[in-house]
Structures are given as structure tokens and as C-alpha cells.
Write a structure and sequence with these properties.
This protein is about 55% helix and about 10% strand. The protein has about 350 residues and is mainly alpha-helical. The protein has 3 domains: about 5-115, no CATH class; about 120-190, no CATH class; about 220-340. α10 packs antiparallel against α13. The longest helix has about 50 residues, at about 290-340.
């Protein structure tokens, strides 16, 4: 799976004695990888031993949030963060910078990422914005406001656009409207998220979705690649088919192989109803060629294969979760008993 960021975890007991025991790990990872990492690299064998995140690489938020956080929770953050698009990423990072608590913890940060699409963040939007990367944030905001409220049109209509200071206009409006200006958009600071909106269980469900999706993509890669190839070939063939264009008129959905499959399936159902006397009208015949029908049939079979793989992965994942929970609980108790004499109670 693709790396989101890396952390260096080190054993605090060893560090207090002048030794560095730890290592780097890329996140996100499966639970068993982190289990092995903590035992073999950080020498953490039970819940009574402590470690810290001593360093990070490519971590998108403030380091202090995760310094003493649980590695499993940090791993959840990496998984959820990887699901965000560019807009949601800037929204989440901006919210943390301008609205985040000074003592924000990992659970609150997870909640921000989970609610990234609900943050009052808006991208700069004005004509020609894609060519204005050298504009200041205030200029971008000024142009966005002026185009939205009609001022820009008024200026252009009167040929006085270049007499207007969009940067000052944007800067003043930013202060008056309680706005935080980011690189590609702006944040309305008047709105606040509930940082306890999602429970640990709900967050875990989202993380599970990520790992299931990752495993499904790996196991179904061959089928997905074949589906993509069929989809592109089908679109190319049907787009240039005059017979289909005449049959479907303005409806261009027939060039999409999945839509074409729905068209044929619907046609088959209607014909069956007619044969049973439940629907009037003549029997419909497929407008697609035999070659096109075979492509549709192959695509449908591949779709069912992918669905089967997804169900198999989900079933296995749920089974492994319950198994790991019980095994982990037993191992934790066993390790605590075996290491009870190794606890460091030196408070001097």
C-alpha cells in the first residue's frame, strides 16, 4: 500500500538510560505489521511499556499531536488521510491550523479528517484563476468575491477593472468576514466542527473500509485491468457505430459498457414479460453487434468476479478481526504476567 507518511518510534525506557532502540516505519500498515514492528524494532512487549514518536517524515499536521500517541491510532490517521482528495486535504490542514485546539489529541485530529467534506472551505473561483498562480491569496480572494457579487462585471462593463485594487479588497474582506486564506481556497472561521462527532468504533469502521478496499484492489487487479481495457475498447467501437447512433438518437449512454449491459438486461426483462403476457408490444431485438454483446457479457462476468472477491475479502477481514481480538487479548494477559518483574518503578 502507498506510503502517506513515516514515523520514527523509540523505546522511552531505553532512551532514559541513554540508548536509542527504535526504527522508521511507513504508514499505513496492517495491524500485524505494526505488532511485529513494535516487538522487534521498538522492543515493546506489553501495554505497560512506553514509546514515543521521536521524528516524522511527510507528516501533514503538527508533530506534537502524535508525539506520545498510540501507533495504532496514528496508523488509522494515515489510512483515513489517504482517502482524502486535494480539496479535503487543504480543508483539514487549514482547519487544524486556524481552528484546532492548542492541546489537540489524535482522536480530535481523526475527527477533523473524517469531517473534512463538512468544513466550510471554498476554493478560489474566478475567470482565469488557473493562470493566476502568482497572485497573492488576498488577490485570489478579492477576485473570487468580486466575481460572485457582480462588482467585477460592473468594473469590466465600465472599463475600469485595472483601477480597482483586488488585493486590498480581498484583504479587508478577509478581516471583516473572519476568513482564513489558504493556498487554493479560503476557510470560514465562523463555523466549528464537533471534534467528538465520531466514536472510536465509527473511525475503526472507516479504517476497515480502507484496508478492505486496498486488499480488494490487489486481489482483483487482473480483473479490474481487463474491465478497464474492455470499457475503453467498447467506447471506441460504439462511438463510431452509425447504426447505434441512429438507434439511440441523443442518448449517448450506449457507449458506456456498463450502461449498455443495463440496456440489454432491461430489454431481456421486458421481452420476458411480453412472452408471459404481462406487457404489450413487440419483442425487442438487441441493437448491438455480436462482438459488442460478447464484450458486454465478458465485462458483466468480470464485474461478478470482482464482487465475489470483495465479499471474500470482507468475510476474511471480519473473521481475522475477531480472531486477532481474542488472540491479542490472551497474548496481552500472558505478556503482562511474564514481564511483571521487568516493570521500571524507579521514580528517582
Amino acid at each position: 500500500m502507498a506510503k502517506v507518511f513515516s514515523i520514527f518510534a523509540q523505546n522511552l525506557s531505553a532512551y532514559s538510560k541513554g540508548n536509542i532502540i527504535g526504527d522508521w516505519i511507513d504508514l499505513p500498515q496492517k495491524k500485524e505489521v505494526i505488532d511485529r514492528f513494535l516487538k522487534e524494532k521498538v522492543k515493546i512487549y506489553n501495554d505497560n511499556q512506553e514509546y514515543e514518536i521521536a521524528d516524522t517524515e511527510d507528516f501533514p499536521f503538527e508533530y506534537k499531536i502524535i508525539r506520545y500517541a498510540d501507533l495504532y491510532e496514528i496508523n488509522k490517521l494515515a489510512a483515513i488521510y489517504s482517502l482524502l482528495d486535494e480539496v479535503q486535504i487543504e480543508a483539514a490542514k487549514g482547519y487544524c491550523e486556524y481552528k484546532g485546539k492548542f492541546d489537540m489529541d489524535i482522536q480530535e485530529l481523526l475527527n477533523i479528517c473524517m469531517q473534512s467534506s463538512l468544513i466550510s472551505y471554498y476554493q478560489y473561483n474566478f475567470e482565469g484563476s488557473e493562470y493566476c498562480s502568482m497572485f497573492s491569496k488576498e488577490q485570489k480572494y478579492g477576485y473570487t468575491l468580486a466575481e460572485g457579487n457582480g462588482i467585477h462585471k460592473l468594473l469590466v462593463d465600465n472599463n475600469i477593472e485595472y483601477c480597482f485594487d483586488f488585493e486590498k479588497y480581498g484583504g479587508d474582506a478577509c478581516i471583516n468576514n473572519n476568513i482564513a486564506l489558504l493556498e487554493n481556497g479560503y476557510l470560514d472561521l465562523n463555523d466549528t466542527l464537533n471534534l467528538q462527532a465520531f466514536s472510536k468504533e465509527e473511525i475503526q469502521e472507516k479504517v476497515d473500509e480502507y484496508f478492505i478496499q486496498e486488499e480488494c484492489e490487489i486481489k482483483a487487479k487482473l480483473a479490474l485491468n481487463k474491465m478497464e481495457k474492455l470499457k475503453n475498447e467498447f467506447k471506441k467501437i460504439t462511438t463510431n457505430d452509425k447504426k447505434l447512433a441512429e438507434y439511440f438518437k441523443e442518448d449517448k449512454r450506449y457507449t458506456n459498457i456498463r450502461s449498455a449491459g443495463v440496456i440489454l438486461a432491461s430489454m431481456e426483462i421486458r421481452n420476458l414479460q411480453r412472452e408471459n403476457g404481462n406487457l404489450e408490444g413487440e419483442i425487442e431485438h438487441s441493437p448491438f453487434s455480436k462482438e459488442q454483446e460478447k464484450m458486454i457479457d465478458d465485462y458483466t462476468k468480470l464485474e461478478k468476479t470482482v464482487e465475489y472477491i470483495e465479499q471474500e475479502v470482507e468475510s476474511k477481514y471480519e473473521k481475522d478481526m475477531y480472531s486477532n481480538f481474542y488472540v491479542g487479548s490472551i497474548e496481552s494477559i500472558k505478556n503482562n504476567l511474564e514481564n511483571e518483574n521487568d516493570f521500571d518503578y524507579d521514580y528517582a
